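User: Earlier you gave me the apo prediction for this protein. Now I'd like the version with pyridoxal-5'-phosphate bound, so I can compare the two side by side. Same sequence as before, with the ligand SMILES added.
Assistant: Got it. Here's the input I'm using:
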Amino acid sequence: MAMSSTSCCSGLLAKRSAAFAPSPIQQLSLLAQRCNAINLAEGFPDFPAPLEVKEAAIAAIQAEFNQYRHVQGVCEKVAEAFENTHGVKVDPKTQVTICCGQSEAMAASVFAVVESGDEVVLLDPAYETYEACVILAGGIPRYVALDPPHWSLDVKKLENAFGPCTKAIIVNSPHNPTGKVFSHYELGAIAALCCKYDCLAITDEVYEHITFEESKHISLASFPGMQQRTIVTSSLSKTFSVTGWRVGWAIAPAVINAAIQNIHVKLTDSAPAPFQEAALVALQSSPSFYVQLQQEYKERRDFVCNMLIQAGFSNFLKPQGSFFVFAQLPDKCPLNDVDYVAELIKEAGVAIVPGCGFFHQKNWTTMPAIQDHPASADKLHMSEQGLDMAAISGSGVYLERFVRVAFCKDMVTLMAADAAIKKHSARLNSPSA
Ligand SMILES: Cc1ncc(COP(=O)(O)O)c(C=O)c1O
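And here is the structure of the complex with pyridoxal-5'-phosphate:
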């Protein structure tokens, strides 16, 4: 028997489903698959996970760890690592919940604390899942735009978003899509507002170990007065190149953690058992593992930044962390982000992501004007140093003028993308084109 028709079923949908239509990103992913494009779009590594971590997972399956499982040892390792890195004492018995990735940890955290009518401050641009969690919880997102090109946080604008209905702010640092790492000053300002307005911070720290040069990840939980009002979420996904294993965690004050734990059990019961066993090994990695991780990502970041400069991009923050570059399309490019990405997939066989999916406010279309700086021999240096906004005039920057390029890929993949983009540019610039 055929399934009932779409029009019949649509009347049965809950209203909230309408908020979750497919984005251009998903449609372009399909195009990229059809064109067999080199994938610099999605934020997952295409190189192997650490051998000893994989061996631990295999051994766990061989040892029949096949059933629902809550591995207390993982909570202990998470607490230990957090205390060693951030100097914040965490009780593994009452303050840690192991979830199915950061995604579930974020959902369970938001469901635990946000109720109908609560406002939640979000920074724009932002990773897509936070808004969905807030809306599903009945909360109201209040966006604060970060200021390009460094995506700095204007503290006055931030304070304007706080009020008596604010329940929480969600902060992701290192940041997807921009590659920004929030400074001590910015985090201090967020902490002060959380204390002043008596609200929570929910952090997404999945890129905690991927930072470059002098940029260091600081957790909001380590600021005075913040441990009792911060829910930290993170996961194995990015650090250990295992996005499909679905092991993450929330660290929260005991009362809140108990609620997160209960919601997690109702949603998914437990994270995959063999991969929790592997987490025990991953979370005991030596300091040299993290040093090498940063070195390898720095090499990839530099390669991709140079690739973009040669392709005519100039206005972008050289990533301080995460594994994404968020670049403004060259001024002379007549296409918007979605059309540029579609053309790059079809003509060069390289997939990246249009930036529009990360912006959530309509008024981004009236962002301050930025134009390419007067000719400079070292454009990357210029974008690192910052553009003098006051001295810059010219065309406006619109939300459809950014693309995100992932560099969590093998150097062979990155070199193939570079060659394909160069070939495409040469064709475009040839007299017969
Ligand atoms: C900022 C950010 N948070 C969370 C996630 C998802 O993390 P997990 O795989 O642990 O659910 C991603 C994945 O792209 C991400 O970029």
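For your comparison, keep in mind: The domain at 51-282 is CATH 3.40.640.10 (Aspartate Aminotransferase; domain 2).
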